[in-house]
Design a protein that fits this description.
Elements lengths: L1 H16 L14 E12 L2 E9 L9 E7 L5 E8 L10 E9 L2 E11 L5 E10 L6 E7 L5 E13 L2 E10 L4 E8 L6 E8 L4 E9 L3 E8 L15 E5 L11 E2 L7 E7 L5 E6 L17 E2 L6 E6 L2 E6 L7 E9 L2 E5 L3 E17 L3 E6 L2 E7 L6 E7 L7 E6 L2 E6 L4 E6 L8 E15 L9
Parallel strand pairs: 1-19
Antiparallel strand pairs: 1-2, 2-3, 3-4, 5-6, 6-7, 7-8, 9-10, 10-11, 11-12, 13-14, 14-15, 15-16, 17-18, 18-20, 20-21, 22-31, 23-31, 24-25, 24-28, 24-31, 25-26, 26-27, 28-29, 29-30
This protein binds beta-D-fructofuranose (FRU).
């Protein structure tokens, strides 16, 4: 099965890379569909990232785990499939999960998804060991579905604290309520069910994560939230609750992480420098994927940039990593002009500083960001061709800085040092490079280089 995936790369790899919408410095699949980040870890001085991968077409289905490594979180070497859906307990997909280190080895946990003939679902939490980060040995099922939950029970995230291992899993109760459940283990072998850690928003929570900052943070992707004004306008959400592992997490404290059109299923890890780094899928399930023009080139979706998380009061701030500055090749614009009009390279960073008052940006005659009266509004043509769509957010503090990363068909906007973030895919006319920026501010635009990681498949 892994060989068939590799053959797909050989067959379509060149076509994929010829797409003018293919990113230069974001992680995207060599062929097929990419979704959630998985198994993100800094191990033996190397960053490892896996992702949900469907190599055979640009839709969802029996997912593989693709594997990448990096020394600097900028340049990523692609190593092909690490896990294939080739066992009875994962034959409909090696679904999302995480990585930890134990006794020098890499240990992965993922969900084995099985859809049987009657399209009923089964779900198993499975374990994998890798002594070298190159070969991956499946060790079978660690946890079966407990009573009280539907088979929507998946995406184990494991961490160690106080000499014991913990695992959170995204779940749905039999009453169709979304929740996160907790397991403990002394050795990553035997797992004890500890109950529901938090519940109550929507009908299913996917891809949970847990970590300690100033407070305890529970991060997850709830499904089934009702749109409320400018909030929850995407098909599904991703966000967090800052609470307390012992006394609990209150759903009324839930905050969305990102306010753009495409952001879902993020995962974090702590690196050797003590940074909490998050990467997300710049996609949205059931959110108009079928309209993306990249299907014609045999690929779809990409990751966000990795971002450092910092707690500021009850807010998680997302800062582009300092490593991203290595991508800058040449400055293509700079200075202070109230009305700027110029060319924005397809792969670039735009930095607006010392902002006084309102700002208006239009890129590629396609997407606009308008910040006025303490509110940011993003618009683009609706993916299904039905007019315009928008997302908006009230800023946390007066506008002083906007930093934006453009990469062929994506735009990530970090306002005021990452207090407010918008991540979106963009599909302007190919070759269109116009930018208009109005406001009292100082502007710098850099062209960014291609990431130099290759493929060792
Ligand atoms: C989130 C998700 C996960 C699941 C995976 C399957 O996007 O639905 O819950 O493990 O994708 O690819």
């Amino acid at each position: 099965m892994k060989n068939e995936a590799k053959e797909e790369i050989a067959r379509w790899g060149n076509t994929v890379k010829q797409d003018p919408y293919y990113p230069a410095y974001h992680i995207a699949p060599p062929v097929g569909l990419l979704n959630d980040p998985n198994g993100f870890i800094h191990w033996n001085g190397t960053y490892h990232l896996f992702y949900q991968w469907m190599p055979f077409h640009t839709g969802h289905g029996a997912k593989f785990w693709a594997h990448l490594t990096s020394g600097n979180l900028v340049d990523w070497e692609f190593h092909g499939p690490a896990l294939a859906p080739d066992r009875w307990y994962d034959r409909s997909g090696c679904y999302s999960g995480s990585a930890v280190e134990q006794d020098g080895e890499l240990v992965l946990f993922y969900t084995g998804n099985v859809k049987n003939a009657e399209v009923e679902r089964e779900s198993y939490q499975c374990k994998v060991r890798s002594p070298d980060g190159v070969t991956f040995e499946k060790l079978g099922v660690s946890i079966e579905l407990p009573e009280g939950f539907t088979p929507h029970f998946r995406d184990p995230k494991v961490w160690k604290a106080g000499g014991s291992w913990h695992m959170v899993i995204g779940a749905q109760t039999e009453d169709k309520e979304g929740c996160v459940v907790l397991y403990d283990s002394p050795d990553l072998e035997s797992w004890q069910y500890r109950g529901i850690l938090a519940s109550g928003l929507g009908y299913m929570w996917e891809c949970p994560d847990f970590f300690h900052m100033e407070g305890d943070v529970l991060l997850f992707s709830p499904q089934g939230l009702e749109e409320q004004g400018a909030d929850y306008r995407n098909m599904y959400q991703s966000g967090y609750i800052i609470g307390d592992f012992d006394t609990g997490f209150r759903t009324e404290d839930f905050r969305e992480l990102d306010h753009g059109f495409e952001f879902y299923a993020p995962q974090t890890m702590e690196d050797d420098f003590g940074r909490r780094i998050m990467i997300g899928w710049m996609g949205m399930p059931d959110g108009g994927e079928e309209y993306f023009p990249t299907h014609d080139f045999h690929w779809i979706h990409q990751m966000t940039l990795p971002r450092e998380l910092i707690q500021k009061g009850d807010l998680l701030v997302q800062k582009p990593l300092v490593e991203m500055e290595e991508l800058r090749t040449r400055k293509v614009a700079g200075g202070s002009q109230e009305k700027w009009k110029g060319k924005i390279p397809a792969s670039s960073e735009i930095l607006l500083q010392n902002i006084e008052g309102d700002v208006d940006i239009e890129l590629f005659r396609y997407i606009t960001l308008r910040c006025n009266n303490g509110k940011a509004v993003l618009t683009r043509p609706a993916m299904d061709g039905s007019g315009e769509e928008w997302r908006a957010r009230t800023l946390e503090s007066p506008l002083t800085e906007i930093r934006a990363f453009v990469d062929h068909s994506s735009l990530e906007i970090f306002i005021n040092g990452g207090e407010t973030v918008f991540s979106s895919r963009i599909f302007p006319e190919k070759e269109e490079n116009s930018g208009i920026i109005n406001g009292d501010l100082s502007l710098t635009v850099w062209e960014l280089r291609r990431q130099t990681g290759g493929e060792t498949v």
